[in-house]
Amino acid sequence: MNSYPPELLAQLAPVMFVAGLDVPSPNPQEATPSRQQDPFAVLKQRLRDALISQRKVAIWQPEKAKIFQAVLVDVDVRFPPRKLAPPEDQQYQPLHSPLSPLTPSSPLYPDGLIAPIWIRKHTTLVPSVFVLFKRIYEHPQPPPNQTGTAHADFDRDREAEERRRDTELAAEIAQRKRSTNERSIKLTAVLMASRRMLDDPALDARLTFIRRQSGLDPRAALFVLSPVTQAEIGDFVRSLQEALYEPALEYYTNHSKRVRRKRNKHSQGTVHIPVSPLGAGNSPRPLRPEGWTVRYEYKMACFAEFRGEDEVALKHYQDTYAALLVMFGSTAILPPRTKRWAEGKVLADCISVKICKLYLYNKEHAMALAHHSAHMRKFSDLSRGWGIGEETFEFWSWLSRQHRVFAELLEQGNWSTLEIPKHTPVPAPSAAKLAAQAAGPQRNAMEAEALRLLGINPTHALQHPGFYYYMAAQCTESRRERFLRALESEVRSIHHGSLSPGFANEKKVDHLAIVLELYTRAYEIFKKNSASPQGRQQLWIAYRIAQTYYASGKFDMAVRFFERIAKTYRREKWEAMLRPLLSTWYACAQQLGDMELSVQLLLEMLGHGVVVDQEDPESVQEDLLAVLKSTVPSNPEQSLVVDLTESGPLLDSTTIFWTPTISVGESSAFQITLTAPPTVQMSDLPFSSLHVHFGGDLPPVVIEHSQPEGDEGTASVQRIDLGRIHAPHPNDGPSPPTDVQANLRWPTGSSLVLTGSLGADFTTILMVTKLVLTLKQNSWTIELPLQPNSSRTGSICRPQWLSSVDPVRFLPIRGEAHSSVTVQNRPHRVSVAVAHNSPAYLGEDYPVTLDITNLDDRELNVVVDVLLHPLEVEHASSDISLDGQNSTSLVKGVALGTLVPGANITKTLILSVKGAIGDRTLDISVQSRTTGPSVANASPPSPNTSFTGDTAESLRTLVIPSVEAIKAEHTVRYKRPAKLSRGLGDLATFEADYSEDAGEAVVSTTMACIGQSGISVESAKLVREDGTRAKVRSSFIDVDEESFLSEWLTGDEFCDQCLISLSRDEDDTDDSPIPGPGHYEVSWRRLQPDGVKGSLSVSRFPLPQLRPPKDGLIALLDIPSTAKLHSPIAIHLTVRNQRLVRSANVVVQFDLDPLTDGFVVAGLRQGRLPVLLPGAEYRMTWNLIPVECGYVQIPKIKVTDRRPVIDAQLSSTNAAAIAAGGRPPQTDGEEVKIVDVRAEAVVEGSEPVVADSTRRGTILVLP
C-alpha cells in the first residue's frame, strides 16, 4: 500500500488534541540518584503513554469503541486559517478555504479534486475536541508556629495569590476557548492538583470561578486529576473519551451538514464560479460540476467515517466513485496523462480500497470481491481508451498494484478480525433432509440440488491473501515483459519521443525484486493455509520463485528451489512440469560450473525427452558428450551413480518369465527387453557394459560392449543369449560370473533382448533385481541403475515374447506377465480317502475312516491334524478323538509313522455328536515330509531363499450333517379331581404335608425311528423323578418293556402312556409349569450297512412340562349317558369355588319348557346357593323322567355369580349415584361355565366341553 498516500487509506477516527503534557527534560547537573522524581512529571508521562497507545494510525480498524486519535500538541498551537480572501478584490469576492480549487494559492487550483493534505488537516491540524492540561496553583503550607494574627495575614495573602493565579489561568483558558469557538471545537480543561489540594474546602469555589471566568461549558469541560496509579490513569482516559465522544460526533455532523448544503446548492445550479479578471482570455479552466460532486461526496464520506457510521460512509464513497467514473469517461473532463488525471486515478483506487474494506467490515466478502473485480474491469476498459492497454507496462503495473493492495488489505484483516470463508464442497443431504425436500415443492428441491452440484463460481469466492499476491506477481512479470519490449524498441528506434512519459522511471524499477517479494509472500500464505505441506499451488509458486532467481542471476538460490520441487514432481510423475524445470536447472548448473550436476540433469533430460534446442533433436546428447569429453569429475576414481528410479527411465525395460513356477532342478525361460524411446537420440552414448543382477548368491551377468564388424549397422531388434543360469546349492561354492558381448548402442526405437533360462536346486524365488548400465568416457564412469520393469510416462509397454529375429516377430502375452519364478519342491503323491456313513445320529460316537496311501517313490513321514469348526447351533456340542487324543476343537500332530512307497495306513476318527442337531465341519490336514537329507539345515543365503524342507500337505473338508435317531412326541390330557375338596375350616389343611388333589394327567409318548439307518434297541425304561406337585403312578413300559426291545427301522413307531397324579399347594400362586416327573431312557446301537452294530448310544427324552387348567368358579354337570322311558334318573350339579381369596354368591336357574323339553323335572327351579368360600363347593340334584325316546337334550341350566353386582353397588361411583337420588346400574352378574364331566378330560391346549344354553348335553332315551 506504499504506492498510495496513507492519508487516503487510513481508517479515520475522531481527533483529540492534547496540550499541556510536555515533560521538561531533567537537568543533568541537578539529577541525583537520591532525588525523588516529580509526581506531576510522572503523571504527565503516564497520561501521554495512555493517550497515544489508545489508537494507532492504521488501515484496518473495524472496532467501534469510543476511542480518539490522540495528537500531542503545544499549548499555544495555532489552527490553520479557515478562509482566505482573494488578493484582487476582497469587497465582492467570497472567502474560500486555502485548499479550495477557487483559491489561486491552493495546490488544487483551478481544477483539482481532493488532495491528501485535506485529510491531513482534519487528522493532524484541526481536532474535534481540545483537551488542555494545566496545573492549578497551590499555596505553600503555613509555618507550624504561627500566632493568630500572623495566621490571619497568611490566609489573606494565600487567598489573594490564589485569586491572582486563578485569574491568569482562566485568561489562558479563555484565550484558547476563543480559538476553538471559531471552529466549533469542544474545549476541555483538566486541572492537575495534589491529593492535599483535593481535600481543600476552597477548591470547589476556585473551580467555579475558573470555569465562569474562562467561559467553559457547564458540561464535560472541566476535570481535576491528581497523581494516581497506572490503572487509574487508564480509567480516567476512558471516562474522558466517553464524555467527549458526543461533542466530537456533533462536530463532524456539523461539517457534514455544511458540506451537504453546499452540494445541494451546487446541484440546484446556484453556485457561482468566479473567473479572475486578470487575463480572462488565458485563465485556466475551473473545476467542472462533476468535480465538485466528487469533492462534496468524498468529504461527507470522510466525516461519516470520522463518526464511525460505516454504512453512511460506504454510500458516499460509492457516490464519489460513480462520479469519478463519469469524469474518467470523458477525455474532455480529465485528459489522459495529465496531473489531475493521475490524481483522479489515485483517488479512485483509494476509494475502491475503502469500499472493499467497509464491505469486509460487514462480513460481505462476495460484495467486496465483486467491487474489486469491477474496479479492475472498468479501469482496464478505460485504460484501453487512453492508449494504456495490455501491450503497455503501465497497464500491468497498475493491475499488479490493485492485486497487491487488495492482498495487503486482506492480510491486515487476517491479523485482526477478518475470517476468510472456507469454500469446502457442500456435503450430500442426509436422508431426513431428502425426505423433507420430497415433502416440499418439487421445484425448490430441484433448484437446491442443482445449486449444490454446481457449487460456487470461483470468481465470486474470496480467497486468502496469498492468491492475490500471486496474481500481483503474475502481473509484475507481464509488466517486466512489456518493459523489455519497450527497451528493445528504444534500442532499435532512432526517435524516442513515442515512448511513454514514465519510461524513464520504469528503468529504475527492479522488477525481479518485486516479483520475488510477491511470490515469496504468496508462498508463505499458501503454505500457512494449505491442508497439505506440499500443495500443487505451493509447488508452482516455488517453481516461479526459482525461475525468478534464475532470471536475476542468483543461480545457487534457484538450484536450491529446483532440488526441493523436483522431488515431488518426480514422485508424482508431473512430466509437463518437470521438463521446463530440468531445462532451467541445467542452465543454472552450467552457470555454476557444477559438472556432476550437469551430467545428472542431462541424463534425466534424456529420460524425459527434453530438448535443449528445438531445431536440433540431438542437442541433449551432444551437450552430454561435450561435457564428458571436455571435463573431469571431482573424484575420477569413484563412479558417478545416476539413479533415475523416480524419474523417467533412460530405456524402457520389461522382464518376463515363461512360467511362474518350476520344480527343483528345472529351469524357466526368461527375456529381458531394453528399448530406446522413439523420439530421443542416444545412439552415440558410449555405454561400456550392462550388468544383470538376479539376487541371492547368483553372480551378475555382465554384457560387455562389442562394436559390430564391418559396416554392419545395429539392427532394430538385437537378441543376446545368456544361456542357462543355475543357482548353486548353498553348500556349494559360488559359480563364476557369466560374460557376454553385445552391441550396447541404442538407435531411436531399437531394442536389445536378453534371453536365457533360470533355475535352482532348492526352493526359492528367482527374479531380476536390477539392471546397471555403465557409461565410460575419458575419466568419467557413470552407473545408471534400471528397474527390471519400467516405462516412460504415457508410453504403453505391452508384454510380448520375442519368437523370431529375422523376420522380427513377437508373441503377445495373454493374461498376467510374470516377472519372477518360484522354485518349488516336487509335489508328494499321497492319496487320502475319507469314508463315513452320513448322517450322524445325535448322541452317537460317529466313526470317520481315514485311508492314507503313499503313491510316491520316496519314503514319507505322515502327520495328521484335525480341526473341528465351532458350532453356531445353540446347545450343540461335539468333540473329536483320533489315536488316543481327544479335543473339542483341534487334534494336532498325530504321527502316523513313515510310509514306504506303496504303503497304506488306516485310522478311525471318532466324532461325538451331542446337544442339538446341526452340521459338523471337519478340516483334515495330512502333512507329509521326505525322510532323506534336506537343505533345510543349510543357512539361507538371502531373505528370498528359504529351506523349510521338502514338505507337502493334503487338505480335506467334511461337512457331516447330524439328525436325531429317535424322535419323541408327547400328548397330555388332564382330568379334574372327582372328590370334594376340603374346606377352609378343615384342620387337615393346616398340616405340613397337606397337598390338595389337582387332578390327573395322562401323557402319551410316541417314539419313532426317523434316521436313514435302523437301530437296535437294547433297553427302554421310564426313569422316575417324582416331585411335590407331580408323581408318576403307572406306565405301560414298566409292565411290558420287552415289546420295545427290537430292531427299529426307519418309520417304526412305539407308544407308551403314563398316569401322573397332580397336587396343588396353597402357596402355589404363580402360573409356572410343573416340571416333568421323569424321562425315558433308550439304549441303542446303529445298524451299519454291512450288518455290524455300532457303539452303544443312549437317548433321553424328558417328560413334558405340565400345565393343568386352573378354574376360578366352575360348575360340573354329571348326567347319565342313557335312560329308559318313564324311568326316573338323577343329574347332579356341583359348583366349586377354586378362587384363592374371593367368595361367590351363586344363583342357579333351571328352565323347563314343556313344549320342547322331553323330561319331567322334580327339583329346584331357581334359587340362591349358600355363599361359597374359597375352596368350597355345593352339590345339587334333580330327578328327571324322560317322556320321549331318542337323543333328548336336557333342559337349560344357568349358573350366575352375583358377586360382581354387589361389588358394583358398593363402589364409590354407584354410591354417589344413589346419594343423588338415582339407581345403580343394573346387571345380571357373571355367568359361570358348566362343564359336562362325561367329556371333561382336557387335552393340553384345548377347551373343555361346556353345557351352556347354546350347547346342552344329551341323553339317549331307550324304550
TrEMBL record:
Q: Which Pfam families does the protein's record reference? A: Foie-gras_1 (PF11817), Gryzun (PF07919)
Q: Where is this region: Disordered?
A: 141-167, 261-284, 929-950
Origin species, per record, is: Cristinia sonorae
Any idea where the Gryzun putative trafficking through Golgi domain is?
646-912
* Occurrences of domain Trafficking protein particle complex subunit (ranges): 340-607
Q: What is this protein called?
A: Gryzun, putative trafficking through golgi-domain-containing protein
Q: Specify residue ranges for compositional bias: Basic and acidic residues.
A: 152-167
